[in-house]
Structures are given as structure tokens and as C-alpha cells.
Amino acid sequence: MTYQEIMENARKNMGGFCNACKECNGVVCKTKIPGPGAKGTGEVFQRNYAKLQEIKINLDTIFEDEPVDTSVELFGKKFRYPVFAAPIGAMKLHYGEMHDDITYNVELVAGCKDAGIAAFTGDGINPQVYGGALQSIKAAGGIGVPTIKPWDVELVKEKIRQAEEADAMAVATDIDASGLALLKNVPTPVSPKSVAELREITQSTKLPVIVKGIMTVRGALKALEAGAYGIVISNHGGRVLDQTPATVEVLPAIAQAVGGRMKIFIDGGIRTGLDVFKVLALGADAVLIGRPYVTAVYGGGAEGAVVYTQKVGIELAETMAMTGANKLSDINKEMLYL
């Protein structure tokens, strides 16, 4: 199956929810919710993408010729690329009837593992969503990161225990989901978390805990104080707050503040291996990619996830070969034209 075939299939299978645009930049879907759009003006989704495209890459092919190594070590494991699938939920509501959250995660987790990376999975009001994700991760030998909504602390800790039983390699909590209106009026509503509450969560497990939804240096320092293994710089794809900066705009300052002391992941508008290269050069350790993996799974199932991952990986390797980076640690800000 080719990437073009996957895209063509996805356009048929998404039923008008998402157009599987050749350029996934938020222009066509803009404020389409239900659907893949962003909140309010829809500007944030577009800004995430546009600000990445403004950054250019310096060509330099005078260097020692060695094989390019795109691998990265995280969570005590080695991955083929510094790329992970981001957690996305409410599939039928936002992307069409072909998949619910459980069947989507079955394909995504398996495909990501086959591609040599891992998927972050989502959570929801229905406990079967999280439970189904854990089943997929367990079937993949623990290669996956279940992401837990910011429910009350005791429920988060219980879900972490379930992740431990499923042999998950790490857990995450998307604290920015505390702004999701549809989760405010449920029996156990989501809510912001204090440093003390986050510390209670991180200290309740030996698993690495990643805090997703960090957009400021202050927020990163709070997560570090709470004992997080890492953070995901993320504005939730523009779906929780309008008028935020792009994730790549806040990355350099956050990396300067906490880089080397905790792992830094980033999402938001990352589509190609060139985009991955850019954010690594600005201080990220790895990336999360969301909407394109939905397109890949709706267009080709687990195989679609493999094909898309390989596409991004090849683009990253080719970019490294044209900039003098033989391994990920060679990538630096001097390789960018800012």
C-alpha cells in the first residue's frame, strides 16, 4: 500500500468529517468541531503548522560520511525514530463511523509497534475506551503510552495501576484536557492539577509519567518540580483555548529552562521528517503527531500507520544526511535558518 492510496482511502472512509487534505494545515477544517478543527477562530491549528513552515534548514554536506542513525532511547527502550503517535479520542464524533476509540487504538498501537515506534492512546468517559487501549498495549508487549484525563487524583492513580498491570512502558496525563467542556459535567469531572497533586501522581508509580499540555517555562518547571519524567509541549491542537502561540514558538525557551533535566516532547502541526528535524534542532527530544495518524489508520489500518511512519522517518534521515547530522544528538540550532 502506498501513502497516496492511504490518503485516497481515508477521504472515502472519513465521510466528510475530515477531508484528508494533502496539506494538513487547518485551513479547510478550521473551526469544524465535531471534526478535526480548532476552537474559536481556528487560528491555533493553522499557526502551529505555519510557524513550523517559516523555519528553514541550512544545507551542508561537507562532513564525515557515516550511516545516518535516526534511533532514540526513551523509557529505557530504543525506537527507530523520535516519533510517536499522539492520543486522539472520540473517533466516531470527530472522524467518522469507521472506527470507535477501541478499534482505532487496536490498529494504531499495532501499526506503531511494527514501525518501530509507539503510540500514545487516549481516555474517555466510557471506561471501555481506556480499558481497550490497555488491551492493545498489552498485546503489543507494553509498547504504548496510555494517556489519562485529569480526573480526580485517586481515579488517575487507579488508572495508572491498571497501566502497570498491562505492562505499559509509561503513562501520560493530558492536563490541558481540563478545559474540555464535555468533560466538565460528568460524574467524575476533569480539573486542573496543583504541583502537589501531580507529585502525588508521579510518586504513586515507578512508571515514567509524562505531563501533556505544557506551553510555558513556568508550567515546565512545575512539572519538573512534581517529578515528571517528561512533558509534551502542546496546545491540544488548538481545541481547548483559542489565541495561544504555536508550540514551536515556545519550545526554545522551555528547552533552555528544563532541557537535560526532563524529556521534552512536542506536538502541533508536525507533519514531515523535516518538521521533526526542526523541533529537534530547537531542543525537543521527540515528537507526537496526531491528525495524520488518524488519516493513516482510516486509510490503511495498522499498515497505514506503518507507511506514514516510514515516510516521516525517511524524510528525517534524508534531512540529516543533507545537514551534517549522522545521529540525532548532532542536530542543533545552527542547522536552522531562523
TrEMBL record:
Q: What is a single Pfam family found in this protein's UniProt entry?
A: FMN_dh
Annotated residues that bind FMN are located at 212, 234, 236, 267-271, 290-291
Q: Which reaction does it catalyse?
A: (S)-lactate + O2 = pyruvate + H2O2
Q: Which residues bind glyoxylate?
A: 239
Which InterPro entries has this protein been placed in?
Aldolase_TIM, Alpha-hydoxy_acid_DH_FMN, FMN-dep_DH, FMN_HAD
User: What cofactor does this one take?
Assistant: FMN
Q: Which residues form the FMN hydroxy acid dehydrogenase domain?
A: 37-338
Extract the CDD domains matched here.
alpha_hydroxyacid_oxid_FMN
* Signal peptide location: none
Active site as annotated: 236 (proton acceptor)
SUPFAM superfamilies hit by this protein: FMN-linked oxidoreductases (SSF51395)
What are the alphabetically sorted keywords of the record?
Flavoprotein, FMN, Isomerase, Oxidoreductase
An annotated Gene Ontology molecular function: FMN binding
Protein family: Belongs to the FMN-dependent alpha-hydroxy acid dehydrogenase family.
Put simply, this protein is called L-lactate oxidase
